[in-house]
Write the structure tokens for this entry.
Amino acid sequence: MPFPGRRGGIYENLCRFARALAVAGRAEPAALLLSGSEALREEIGANISWVAKMKEETLATLRPQLDEAALAELWEQGRNLSLDDAVAVALDLS
């Protein structure tokens, strides 16, 4: 399904969940969801400026919470989550 559709909304909401988790100090699931949202963004070709800004702000919040190696490992894991798995992670944390 092309953007904007359900996948576009899922992309936006995964980024929102990641932001909320990062601000709450839950860095590991935040990093997973943020990288999963980024993988989905690339897949659907989305380019939404406010979501891109939120992603950068979320990364800035995550960096002091995780060392570089941990963030890189979580980022790779999140990028490899299926869409269903990413949504399940978000729902399990809500």
